Amino acid sequence: MISHFNVIANVKQIQPFEQPSRDAIKLGYLDVTLGLVPFSHIYGLVGIAHISVYRGDSIVVLPKFVFKDFLGSVEKYKINTLSVVPPIIINLVKNKVLCDQFDLTSVRSVMTGAAPLGKETAQEFASQHPDWVTRQGYGMTETATAVTNTSPADVWFGSSGCLLSGVEAKVLSSEGVEITEYNKPGELLVKAPSIVLGYLNNPKANAETFIDMPEGRFLNTGDEVEFRGLQVAPAELEDCLLDHPAVADCAVIPVADERAGELPKAFIVKSPAVAKDDENVIKHSILKHVEKAKSRHKWLAGGLEFIDIIPKSPSGKILRRLLRDRERERRRETQAKL
């Protein structure tokens, strides 16, 4: 039983998640998306029909999948987003010669769901179409579509993205113990405003699927997942920062982030040679230095702060605990003012 509230809630979860990438194209940007997935399927119903209408996008509806007709429609109607399933992507990969006969330059992004898209297939597809952003989401009928989605700014092949706003998740071991560390598989339970009311006239299925917990009502998806984490070694970033001429000393700590879990933040002691220079210019230069040298997940997304001295022990070891305490106190003060 899917309520109107479930559908509206998921639309309101997806829209703000994707809006920054649309604004990056142009404020007020409107998309032309492919309506090939049946609208009787929850992916088509909410993930294409409802969200596109809500945003004012155009939907090019095809009655069925015929490969040449599909390619011809992309060319004719200048479709920007291909909302498809993995078998269609596999078709595109295997038929590159045919694809090259059509003008597909209007395509900006590909959204895939309903089944997993393998990492190797995604990588091959991306190599054939480097200008297309290939994203993957996860959801099911019982969640009234999306639970996770991939940000165009953070594509990770083999992953189905991150949790949407308003979604809470638990991962349980086969023994029913909650898994809290990264990279350890377990069964996914989710709580969200889009979780359906239940199965009609089927109390047994309801009892097996929907679980009341202290935090609220969770859906047992029956799917195995793992939350991935990327390790960032502070010493590695500190070595990189010390190569910048404006940096006399530095320390890197993790700071909490609702979306990523933790992000690296740098505390910088400026070199005397740049002591009187504009701090914003110095900061921009240092950030670009790290971005040029390191992978995206090692960029200083947690921030960069200038400091007079890096706290160290008598033996010269960085006292990161003091910096973490300083950061927590600063955040508490900021939240109190808000």
Structure description:
- Helix 9 links the parallel strand 14 and strand 15 (304-306).
- Helices cover 35% and strands 23% of the residues.
- Helix 1 packs across helix 2 and helix 4 (86-94) packs across helix 6.
- The mean pLDDT is 90.
- The longest helix is centred in the first third of the chain and has 22 residues, at 4-25.
- It is an alpha/beta fold and 338 residues long.
- It is built from 10 helices and 15 strands.
- The protein has a 4-stranded antiparallel sheet with strand order 9-10-12-11. A 3-stranded parallel sheet has the order 3-4-5.
- It folds into 2 domains: 4-165, Rossmann fold (3-Layer(aba) Sandwich), CATH 3.40.50; 234-337, GMP Synthetase, Chain A, domain 3 (2-Layer Sandwich), CATH 3.30.300.
- It is globular, with a radius of gyration of 24 Å.
Key features of this structure:
Rossmann fold, GMP Synthetase, Chain A, domain 3, globular, four-stranded antiparallel beta sheet, alpha/beta, AMP-bd_C, 35% helix, 338 residues, 23% strand, AMP-bd_C_sf
Set out the fold topology.
Elements: H1 4-25, E1 32-35, H2 42-55, E2 58-61, H3 67-77, E3 81-84, H4 86-94, H5 96-99, E4 109-112, H6 119-128, E5 133-136, E6 138-140, E7 145-149, E8 162-163, E9 168-172, E10 186-191, H7 203-209, E11 210-213, E12 216-225, H8 234-242, E13 247-257, E14 261-270, H9 279-293, E15 304-306, H10 320-337
Parallel strand pairs: 1-2, 3-4, 4-5, 14-15
Antiparallel strand pairs: 6-7, 7-8, 9-10, 10-12, 11-12, 13-14
